[in-house]
């Protein structure tokens, strides 16, 4: 992502994406289940990241 966005890369959004991926792994590969509250929290993170990603896509050179 850093290479694609260069100086437009937001460090906070990069951390958010890493956090999302880290939370996904236990459910995908270890059979861990999330509570509804955990799923909602993760969804909010995803929606925030997706909004930022869409904005960056629209502003692409």
Which SSEs are present, and which pair or pack?
Layout: H1 2-5, H2 11-29, H3 36-58
Helix pairs in contact: 2-3
Explain what this protein looks like in three dimensions.
The chain contains three helices and no strands. With 61 residues, it is mainly α. It has one domain (2-58). Helix 2 (11-29) packs across helix 3 (36-58). The radius of gyration is 14 Å and the shape is elongated. It starts with a helix and ends with a helix. The mean pLDDT is 88.
The rounded distance between the terminal residues' Cα atoms is 15 Å
Number of strands: 0
Helix content: over 70%
Helix and strand content put the structural class at mainly alpha
Quaternary structure classification: single chain
Low-confidence stretches: none
Mean pLDDT: 88
Strand content bin = under 5%
The gross shape turns out to be: elongated
The major pleated sheet works out as: none
Sketch the topology as an H/E string, one letter per element.
Answer: HHH
* Tally of separate helices: 3
Number of domains: 1
Global Rg:
14 Å
């Amino acid at each position: 992502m850093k290479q694609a966005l260069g100086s437009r890369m937001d460090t906070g959004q990069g951390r958010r994406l890493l956090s999302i991926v880290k939370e996904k792994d236990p459910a995908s590969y270890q059979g861990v289940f999330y509570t509804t509250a955990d799923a909602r929290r993760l969804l909010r993170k995803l929606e925030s990241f997706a909004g930022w990603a869409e904005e960056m896509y629209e502003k692409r050179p």
